[in-house]
Amino acid sequence: NASTEDQTQILNQIGLVHAQAGRFQDAFHHFLQAEKGDEQNYCSEASLIYKSSLSLYALMNQSLPDAPKVKEARICSKQMDEALVNAYVAVIEGEVEQSQGNFSKAFEHYFNALDELYSDSSLLRAYVNMRIASNLVWVGKHSYATYYLQQAEKLQTDKAGSWYVEYLLLQAQVANAQKKFKQAYGLADQAEAFALQINNTYWQAQSVLIQAYIDLHASEAEQLQSRLDRLSTLVDMNQFPDIDHQTVLLQLEQASN
């Protein structure tokens, strides 16, 4: 029989796989099982992963983060004092803040993560660069986002998986902000094709959302309505609260135009 620690690590890994695939409710469930099965609940890499992840995916599923969990993870990472562990928690803290619209605090956490990974060329460093680019897009600093997207691409050579879908969508948002609509559509369409290829419904819905934003800015009203109908179906079928929230913001912007 697998030890309790092994079981916790296995549940964490399953949770991370679900999260990558955009199945946030399944991810949350497995991290919760990891926490329940960890009888010792001492500071370890495994407990740090499920605590910080529970905080983030509580936010993705319920629109409210589990704040005590991410604080516990931060205390644990300080005790462990390992660069990779500290960076991982900092990224999660940044994502929680970004998801709640606290962009300045998110930047602080992301750059703390980069400092921890200064001499490291790991995939986590690529992911941090992606998070900084995403945050910059949210605050309208599109030209700065391009630099961090380039850094992420240099570090992450595998042009596949959900990270690459997000990379293409961030590039599409930059092109859209620059009114390069043909380029923006091309990137967003490519992102959707990748999402379908890897059977990732969450990133398929995100692709349609970004296409709808391009429709809005390119004054393609009829196409926009068709896209919103499609997006509504995807969100209703799969329960993506964060995409639902972003869709409402898009519709408010549409109404004000």
Mean pLDDT: 85
C-alpha-based Rg, rounded: 19 Å
Strand content: under 5%
Q: Count every helix, treating DSSP H or I runs of 4 or more residues as helices.
A: 13
Q: Indicate the structural class.
A: mainly alpha
Low-confidence parts lasting 5 or more residues at pLDDT below 50?
A: none
Helix content: over 70%
Please report the total strand number as a whole number. 0
Alpha carbon gap, first and last residue: 62 Å
Q: Describe the global form.
A: globular
| Assembly of the depicted chains | single chain
Largest sheet: none
Spell out the helices and strands N to C. HHHHHHHHHHHHH
Write the layout of secondary structure elements.
Blueprint: H1 4-20, H2 24-37, H3 45-62, H4 67-80, H5 83-99, H6 103-116, H7 123-138, H8 142-155, H9 161-177, H10 181-197, H11 201-217, H12 221-238, H13 241-256
Helix pairs in contact: 1-2, 1-3, 2-3, 3-4, 3-5, 4-5, 5-6, 5-7, 6-7, 7-8, 7-9, 8-9, 9-10, 9-11, 10-11, 11-12, 11-13, 12-13
Describe the protein's architecture and organization.
The protein is an all-alpha fold and 257 residues long. The chain has helices at residues 4-20, 24-37, 45-62, 67-80, 83-99, 103-116, 123-138, 142-155, 161-177, 181-197, 201-217, 221-238, 241-256. The protein is globular and about 60 Å long.
List the main descriptive attributes of the protein structure presented here:
single chain; 13 helices; globular; mainly alpha
How would you concisely characterize the structure shown here?
This protein is mostly helical. The protein is 81% helix and 0% strand.
